[in-house]
Structures are given as structure tokens and as C-alpha cells.
Amino acid sequence: MAEIKGTFDERFAPVTEALVRNLDSGADVGASVAVVLDGELVVDIWGGHQDVAASVAWERDTIVNVFSTTKTMTALCALILADRGELDLHAPVARYWPEFAEAGKDRIEVRELLGHTSGLSGWEQPLTLPELADWERCTSLLAAQTPWWTPGTASGYHALTQGYLIGEVVRRITGQTVGQFFKDTVADPLGADFQIGLPPEKDSQVAPLIPPPPIDLRSAGFPDLAVRTLTNPRLTGEVTAEEWWQRAEIPAANGHGNARSVATIQSIISCGGEAHGQRLISEHGLAPIFEEQSNGRDLVLNLPLRFGMGFGLASETMPMGPRTCVWGGYEGSLVVNDLDSRMTVAYVMNKMGANVLGDPRGASIVVAAALALPNE
Fold it and tell me: 25, 32, 68, 333: which one is catalytic?
């Protein structure tokens, strides 16, 4: 039986048992799980190894690239600016980023970036992977590009572009990169070990991702728009080990953290804007998360999805409570915020799953946490 380290409230023993099952079955190699309930860290556990050879143990401070779980951090930055009155989520993006008005995009609103409905799910011009580190190129291409569908009519998952789009709005308002704004405004005040743009001093903490077999998107039935979105450039687990990737700010995909840091930060949402002795946003400032931006089959992921601003909401694909918001990463990481129970559940691991969206490992953790709550 896998050895689990850390601490947990006995009520949440089933969460620990779920992690043990994942590790014992080989579904996981190394992983961390955290649960924050009403502002208190009631589960903070980890186990397994940083490598397939089981030569390096997963430690308390081990962090990994969490891919699209990063989007929840970037969205929180935008929500904080909106709560301060510095950003109007219903204003045209061009109010803050004038160049964005090109190619008929003058009426696209900030909320459409957060809801994946802007029509800019990918780049028209070919990009190499290392070019993702070139902020000016990535953002200027998007500013000049014509949307791939009528903005606001449907979601099309902005797998990589969302981070540049929101990040550039943040930069235009604050004068800081989104990674620096996030560090100064969110991570440092909360004492959370999560970075968008990994500094060299954190290199020793990083567990490399263990990639799955490659997926042929066309053979798997994904539409042409998905292929255009997800293959220019095509991300792999291997690229996350490269120094240029780690140093860059790719705010939809290259955040590094563990379950403790993810849950600590995101519990600001489940606890009404205040947790761990810090208020980062008003309760009213969280309301846009639940303003529905789309509800239907996503043009990229080809699944029925419902998006608010920055998060997925309850839908046929993701059945959950009406005041629950969620998102996760390509590799399987996951964070769920339940505002009614004031609970955040986070799961972070190094063995990448084979699913583009949804992973039974994280789901088992979330179910175990929900079952531990008292019946009301």
C-alpha cells in the first residue's frame, strides 16, 4: 500500500483512501491532494514518486506544471481588477488594448475572453513551440487576427490563447505582466507556492511530467477547429521540462504548483473572497464567475460545456452544484470550488492522463471530499 504523507482531518479519510487507490493501481506515480473547508486546510497530503523508476520520492514542496489549471489563476487576476473598478468585464477589449480592434474585433468584450467565446481559440499564423515564449509575437498576432466564428455565439476552448488575451489586458491596465501581478497580488499575500513563469531557484522542486501516448485528434473524432486550435503548436508533456517553457509566462498553461498552493489560492473563491487572513476580492466581485457566457457543444472540445467567466459551470458534462465552478489541466490536475459548502478541492500529479478533458483520478478525489461533508 502506498505511503501517504501529510495531514488530514479524520472526516476526510476517504480522500486519503482515494489517493492510495490511485497510487496502488498505477493510475498515479506521484500526486498531492488538498482540501480547504471554510478557510481551513483540512487535507494536505502527498505520496508516490517523482519518476517512473520510483527513485525520487514526492516531497511536501514538490511542484509540477499544471497546464490549464493555470487558467483559474489568470482568471482570478482579471476578477480582482474588475472588483477594484480598474477593469469592466463587459467593456470592449479594445478599450484597454486598442490594437485588438483590428479585423472587426472592436466589439468583442473582455467577458468573451474569459468565457472562451471570442472566436480566437488559436493562431492563424503558424507558431513553433519556442515562440510561445515571445509575448509580443503571440499577442500581436491575436490582435491582428479575424475571429474563427462569430464572437459570443458559442464557446471554442481557448487552450493557449486565453492566457495571452487576458494577460495582455492585465498588462495594459497594471503595467505588469500577468505573472508578476499574480505573484504580487495573489500568491505572495497568501504564501502560496504557485508561479506563472518559474524562477530558477524553484527548479529543484519540479517533478517532470510523465507523458501519455500521443492522441490523433482526427481519429479521435475531434472537429477541424480542434485540430487547428490544439496543434498550432502542439503541446506535449516533454516540452514542460525545457527551460524556455518554464521561464516563460504562458498564463493558460505553464503554471507550476502543488495541490496545497492551488487550493490555498482558489479557496479565496469558495470562501467568498476572503481566506487565510486575506481578502483579495469582495463577495460581489465573484458573481461574474457564474454569469453564463455559453451553454452548448464546445466547438473545440466537442463536448456539451457551460462557461461562466474563467471557469466551467454545472452542465451535462460536469454535473455539480449551482454555485460550483471548476477547471483542470490537460495532464489531469483539477480544482473545484463549491461556494455553498465553502470548500475547495485540488489534485495535482505528474503522470499525465490520456483524456483531453476529464480524468477519473481527480474525480475520485472530489467525490470522496464531497461525501465527507455533513448532510444538510
Answer: 68
